[in-house]
Design brief:
With about 110 residues, this protein is an alpha/beta fold. About 40% of the residues lie in helices and about 30% in strands. The longest helix is centred in the first third of the chain and has 18 residues.
Length: about 110
């Protein structure tokens, strides 16, 4: 769940949308985050989407589903998505699941 320090922000950068997520993501938190992101993507349909996850301190399999679902949604409308600067906790679970073979991972604060 998004804990008391959890947040989701959206920033447009040219043709890209940067979605910053922070806090802990479990089943309950992932539902709220997913619906918020989906509303923004349905309205704006940015060609490039970055999920910036440096502020996520914990993520379970619901977080993996959140990433994969947004990746599929963005691809469906012809866009591209990458995970940007995942925290050590997030990169570990992404690699264990093998998602780094499907979803591009960018580090070093690259925004474009």
């Amino acid at each position: 769940m998004m804990n008391g320090d959890g947040y989701v922000t959206y920033e447009e950068r040219g043709d890209a949308m940067v979605v910053r997520i922070g806090g802990e993501i479990d089943h309950h938190g992932a539902v709220a985050v997913r619906s918020g992101i989906d509303r923004v993507l349905a309205t704006r349909r940015p060609p490039r989407v970055y999920l910036e996850l440096s502020g996520v301190s914990f993520m379970d399999s619901s977080g993996l589903g959140l990433i994969m679902g947004r990746y599929a949604l963005v691809k469906r409308y012809g866009g591209a998505m990458a995970v940007l600067d995942p925290s050590p906790a997030v990169i570990r679970i992404i690699r264990l699941a093998g998602m780094d073979k499907m979803v591009p991972i960018r580090t070093g604060k690259k925004k474009g």
